Amino acid sequence: MALARSHPKGSPIDVARVGIVRKWWIRTIQSLGNLHRRMLAALFAALGPVLAYRITGWGASFIYFLLEPLRTRSEAQCRIALRDRVDTKEVPRIARQSFINRARNITDLMLASHLLRPETCQRYGGQIAEPFRTELLNDQARRQPTILLTAYYGSFDLLPIFLGHNGIRATVVYLPHSNQGYDEYRRRIRGQSGSQLVAVQQAAVRLAQVLNAGGTVALIADHHLEDRGIETEFLGLKTKASRSVGLLAWRYGANVVVAAIRRIGDTFRFEVVVEEVLYYKDVAKEPDPVKFITARYMRALERLILADPAQYLWAYARWGDEHARRVTAKEIS
């Protein structure tokens, strides 16, 4: 005779057991991933940048080929945003290279941990061009609040490192990774030159404190905010951009600098590009400074992306999830 169950299926005890198993499984996968990352970092350090980027490129190309939904979505968003700007035949290549560049961001971090130093920063193209570097340093010295903006473009993960090696003390907003081990690894490398990293959950309070004290903050401003954003366009498509940048700049009298770290070639070489500087003394004259700042920095981000579209993250739902689903469905049909 079968023994009766001591508790019904789906009871709190069963749910608790499933939760424990799931957490154990997630921790195991993350631990294996962290071990793989450490081994890969050691391998890349031994092989050098050329082979490291080549290996990453091969792996990313293979994954991109396998992930058809991601490939379709990337090409769909790329095609509609770059219509009339690039030959439609170039879209598959641009979208594929975009995914490869994103995969190479982890390679950037692995190599940066032992290649980037104050004395080597310029060798790898990490020095901010004049007169912008001197302006930023002078603003820092006289406590002029400054907001540095970038997008999911190029090697954006290296921004905090390059800022520090250029003498810029910045508070950088970042999105924590769900894998705590990897998140600590990434924060340690990105903060190695002195930049302070602040999780996006604490950004609102901390950015206000830093700007009020005349400091410098850096963040990715390339987000679609469906519920509370300012209506505008990005690459010819309707979007809603965050009011935060304009509001912070207006309230604290901050200059706004739009810049990016552009990858050069297939090795550990970069270029820090300053696309536009909005000086508060000029912006304050506008009838609606917040709207003016938002429109100007969005146009500057567009110019950065159009200079090399393959370095933009086309898999990212830049115009919102609904837009991404709609254009992807249209691509499939």
- Taking Cα atoms only, what radius of gyration do you get, to the nearest Å? 22 Å
Biggest sheet overview: 6 strands, mixed
Count of DSSP-assigned helices:
12
How would you write the strand order of the largest sheet? 3-2-4-1-7-8
Stretches with pLDDT under 50, minimum 5 residues: 1-5
**Termini separation:** 57 Å
- Work out the strand percent: 5-15%
Please estimate the helix content.
Answer: 40-55%
Order of helices and strands: HHHHHEHEHEHEEEHEEHHH
Summing up helix and strand content along with how strands pair, one would put the structural category as: alpha/beta
Number of domain modules: 1
Please provide a written account of the structure.
There is one protein chain. This protein has one domain (48-333). 53% of the residues lie in helices and 14% in strands. It has helices at 12-47, 49-66, 68-81, 91-115, 132-141, 159-165, 180-190, 203-212, 244-252, 280-283, 289-307, 321-332, and strands at 146-150, 170-174, 196-199, 216-220, 230-234, 237-241, 255-263, 270-278. A hairpin with a 6-residue loop joins strand 7 (255-263) and strand 8. Helix 2 (49-66) runs antiparallel to helix 4 (91-115) and helix 3 crosses helix 4. The longest helix has 36 residues, at 12-47. It is globular and about 50 Å long.
Features:
14% strand, 53% helix, globular, two-stranded antiparallel sheet, disordered N terminus, six-stranded mixed beta sheet, 333 residues, single chain, 12 helices, alpha/beta
Q: Strands, helices and their partners?
A:
Blueprint: H1 12-47, H2 49-66, H3 68-81, H4 91-115, H5 132-141, E1 146-150, H6 159-165, E2 170-174, H7 180-190, E3 196-199, H8 203-212, E4 216-220, E5 230-234, E6 237-241, H9 244-252, E7 255-263, E8 270-278, H10 280-283, H11 289-307, H12 321-332
Parallel strand pairs: 1-4, 1-7, 2-3, 2-4
Antiparallel strand pairs: 5-6, 7-8
Helix pairs in contact: 1-2, 1-4, 2-4, 3-4, 3-12, 9-11
